[in-house]
Amino acid sequence: MNGVREDFREILRLVRPGSRVLDVGCGGGELLELLTREKQVDGRGVEISHQGVSACLARGLAVMQGDADRDLDQFPTGAFDYAILSQTLQATRNPRQVLIELMRIADRAVVSFPNFGHWRVRWSLLRDGRMPETRSLPEPWWSTPNIHLCTLADFTALVEDLGLRIEASAALADGKAARPMDPSRKIENWRAEAALFLLTRRSDGGEPDPLPDDLFGG
Amino acid sequence: MTIAAEPEAIEQDGGTWTFPPERPLVLESGARIDGLELAWRSYGRLNADKSNAVLICHALTLDQYVAGTHPTTGKPGWWTRLVGPGKTLDPARHFIICVNVVGGCMGSTGPTSTNPATGKAWGLSFPVITIGDMVRAQAMLVEALGIDTLLAVVGGSMGGMQVLQWAADYPERMFSAVVVASAPRHSAQNIAFHEVGRQAIMADPDWRGGDYALHGTRPEKGLAVARMAAHITYLSEAALQRKFGRELQRDGLSWGFDADFQVESYLRYQGASFVDRFDANSYLYITRAMDYFDLGAAHGGVLAEAFRKARDVRFCVLSFTSDWLYPTAESRHIVRALNAAGARASFVEIESDKGHDAFLLDEPVMDSALAGFLDSVATARGLK
Predict the structure, then answer these.
(1) Torsion angle of alpha carbons A87, A89, A90, A93, nearest 10°?
(2) Given this model, what pLDDT does residue A132 score?
(3) pLDDT 10s digits, B325-346
């Protein structure tokens, strides 16, 4: 388990053994392979690049070439226990719709994204008056794939608007262990470099199983 | 479909399997074929636990000669990119089978065969066959060869339709499925192009109502025109432009109707060489089988129902961006149905400007996708 990305570690902790998982933007299948090995999940991936898809195939993973904006309609409603969207939401054309689709396909969504409200980002914009280039957002504005950046507060507002419930949330920072956080605290919008959420539908009859208390190991 | 490589030596077996009278092929139309003969080819050897058998299903005008040297044309087999020593499907590791389809003209029972009831060639009295009939015949042969479960059923174009049919009819007899450049049904445009081909054949006076064998003639002109029209659908506009542009055969125009343009000469050559290796009535019957193919309609109008029992089969579906004969949308339709059925489906759309024929050509992304998929399938099946 050494060398595993911190956000992967958290997702691994969140996902129940033997569940059905869709990883949207699964790259070469590192996370799916980890989940299959450690949690015996029945996994599927969606990946936009053919290099990623070929790598997944070679790992024996079931993967579809496609993108989050266009191709989630390929999956039937309620087909998965978890839909994972790791560091991709901000790069979609219609994040709101993508989130709706994730919650249609799966009972729970695991979503992570860089927080544009982080103090480094705010400071960079304030000081230079130019689009921030930070360690979590390293590319210049004209080449970044991140076309729909949002802050922690923006995201929680959207979650509220869509009638979703936050089951768990954590602040992520490069190379550091994930830290459980209360996203409603304003300070978190300053200090979380990136955030990871576990979302469910608020109430639609079928109450999801209760989750363990120690989601983030603390 | 020119392949430059030299034919390579390969361990192969095969022949013609004749089914006993008590095992007729009962057709979807209700007709039956007694004493069915299937011409087949195999490469490599069946292992002790019979777990390494791969069935390749061929496309409309191809045949069982996947690898090695083709006995009629002397050219290498049609899928030596995939099948051969050191290739993804390796005779040292796999037992690779390919069967000439029912209705074909390379040794399996078809309209050129002799009708045992009359002692004459079947001609148009041969019953209309379907993709389902082709697959049922293959399943009979696979069973006769003593194979319970195929490691993979693989096919492109019409071969892909057969793979889908296999998944619908015999999911318990296959471990994985590869569907390349194919569709779950024939579209209006597909049927339209086939109808042009059939009308060209039937308009040839030498066709003689299908009884040309009795008259000692061959409707070569009609069949050649059918091939020319079809060949255009196998290429993309970009591929034609890249290959030929407006290049002329000679300096200047003929001011007549010779093949001035290189593309004309190319198509004429394609037509002329096709008639040497293919039969006109077989062309009618096989194109008809493809036109009749609609896997969703055969399952109450819901394609996912066709795959309901195929949940344990691992699927790999591939399409090509410039294939307008069986466009990516058709493959996505398949994948959506597989997902709805809860099957393990993988899908890759390969960037290519070579059109439908790309599945037979140099496409490294296809090679690596197939290698990755089939290797992982072999591992999952415990193959060394």
Answers:
(1) 140
(2) 93
(3) 999 999 999 999 999 999 999 9
CB B283 within 8 A of CB B243: no
- Reduced to 3 states (helix: H, G, I; strand: E, B; else coil), residue B160 is helix
Check if the beta carbon of residue B262 is closer than 8 Å to that of residue B249: yes
pLDDT means over runs of 10, chain A (218 residues): 77 95 95 95 94 92 94 94 95 96 97 95 95 89 95 97 96 88 96 96 60 48
Q: From CA B129, how far away is CA B113, in angstroms rounded?
A: 14
- Separation between Cα atoms, residue B190 and residue B179, nearest integer Å: 18
Say how many residues make up chain A: 218
The beta-carbon neighbor of A60 closest among B349, B351, B376 is: B376
Element (H, E) at B266: helix B262-277
In angstroms, the CA B42 to CA A146 distance is: 52
What is the ipTM for the molecules in this complex? 0.85
CA distances from residue B308 to A18, A73, A203, A204, B101 in whole angstroms, order as listed: 21, 19, 31, 28, 26
Q: How far is A6 from chain B (nearest CA, A)?
A: 28
- The reply to whether the predicted model has a pTM over 0.80 is yes
Closest chain B C-alpha to A48 CA, distance in angstroms: 9
The count of other CB atoms within 10 Å of the CB of residue B383 is 17
Contacts of B350 in chain A (CB under 8 A): 50
In the block, tokens 């839909």 appear at A83
Q: Is A57 on the interface with B (CB under 8 A)?
A: yes
Give A81's contacts in chain B (Cβ within 8 Å): none
Residues of B in contact with A61 (CB under 8 A): 346
Q: How far apart are CA B346 and CA A53, in angstroms?
A: 9
B379 → chain A, closest CA residue? A60
C-alpha torsion sign, points B293, B298, B302, B307: negative
Can you say how many angstroms the Cα of residue A77 is from the centroid of all Cα atoms in its chain?
19
The position carrying tokens 């969703």 is B296
CA distance A15 to chain B (A): 20
Q: Residue B162: beta bridge partners?
A: none
Q: Six-digit token pair at B265?
A: 């000469």
Chain B residues with CB-CB distance to A57 below 8 A: 316, 346, 348, 369, 372-373, 376
Largest CA distance in chain B: 67
DSSP codes joined into one string, A17-55: TT-EEEEET-TTSHHHHHHHHHH--EEEEEESSHHHHHH
DSSP-H helix ranges across A66-118: 95-105
Q: Give the count of beta carbons closer than 10 Å to the beta carbon of residue B209.
A: 10
Listing DSSP states for B213-225 in one string gives HHHT---HHHHHH
Cα distance between residue B144 and residue A19, in whole Å? 40
Picking from A50, A73, A79, the nearest residue to B365 by CB comes out as A50
C-beta separation of A113 from A194 below 8 A: yes
